[in-house]
Amino acid sequence: MSVTIKSAREIEYMRIAGKLLEEVHNELGAFVKPGISTLDIDRYGEKLIRERGCIPNFLNYNGYPASICVSVNDEVVHGIPHKERILMEGDIVSLDAGLIYKGYHSDAARTHGVGKISKEAEQLIAVTRQSFFEGIKYARAGRHLHEISAAINDYIDQFGYGVVQDLVGHGIGTKLHEDPQIPNFRQKRRGIRLMPGMTLAIEPMINAGGWEVCWLDDDWTVVTEDGSLSAHYENTVLITGGEPELLTLSL
Ligand code: MF3
Ligand code: CO
After folding, report:
1. How far is the CA of 74 from the centre of ligand 1 (A)?
2. How far apart are CA 187 and CA 164, in angstroms?
């Protein structure tokens, strides 16, 4: 396992890749409404990425057939966009998107409500997002990687939600998936020591019910085993000498 440390020049490219992806996500979030298809989201997302002179990094990744992963309700991640899958008022939809700018990758996910959604769904989305922020309190040079994992897990446990174990966050840079793997659940080992210049995609995937998931016959779509709702939140994060820098989110 080798974790890359990005140079100042590489970090500049990753900042731009991150900023452009943030713009794409903001546009996609405003686009979500009842009546559109998940394929409409993919088409629009790909257009937004290409308009910025970038390449959608998910398209054809290990054979994935689209640019944006669109996962509705009990779909956890890697939902495949389809023209017949129409968003309905009350659904929740996780959009996972990524792009390549001058050879550098960014990766981020957001979960949106479609129209008016239940209190339970609102809370799941808010808690999933907050778990990311609890995690990155430990995304600092000198800390160990699994302190992030434990912080996410501890926060989620208070709500009785399930933390998905079969999928994890990851390093990111000239490849979409680099070392290290970043679990969202507690680990026995403390993990690598974080250093300035590491770039990490931290991405809690949280189920309203149990943590167990299964794969649909399309070999991509991950769903909750118990049919409960699931939310996803992700940013590409730079480890610095101080506060972590969120490359895909301006606060
Ligand atoms: N953000 C996702 C991840 O880190 C990327 C989706 S993989 C794809 O795993 F194949 F669907 F593109
Ligand atoms: Co990712």
Report:
1. 17
2. 13
Tens of pLDDT, residue by residue over 203-239, are 999 999 999 999 999 999 999 999 999 999 999 999 9
Query: pTM to 2 decimals?
Result: 0.98
Among protein residues, the one with the nearest Cα to ligand 1's atom 12 is: 58
Domain containing residue 135: CATH number: 3.90.230.10
Contact 224, 200 (CB under 8 A): no
Best mutation site among 25, 69, 70, 178 for ligand 1, i.e. most ligand atoms within 8 A of its Cβ? 69
Q: 1 in a domain, yes or no?
A: no
Model pLDDT for residues 158-198, shown as the tens digit of each residue: 999 999 999 999 999 999 999 999 999 999 999 999 999 99
How many other C-beta atoms lie within 10 A of the C-beta of residue 33?
A: 12
